[in-house]
Amino acid sequence: MKFIKNIIFYALTATVIVSCNSKKASSSDSDSTIIIATSSWTAAYAEAAGAENVTVLAPFEMEHPSEYELRPGDISRLMNADVIIYAGYEVMTERLKKGLDLPQEKLLLVNTDYNFEKIEKSILDIAARLGTENIARENILEIRRVFDEGRNTVSEKNIAKRPIVAHRFQSSLVTELGLVPVMVFGPASPEASAIASVSKIQAPLIIDNIHNPVGQPFKEVSPDARHIQLLNFPGMKGTKTIIDVIRYNVAQITTD
Question: What 3-state DSSP class applies to 170?
Answer without folding.
Answer: helix
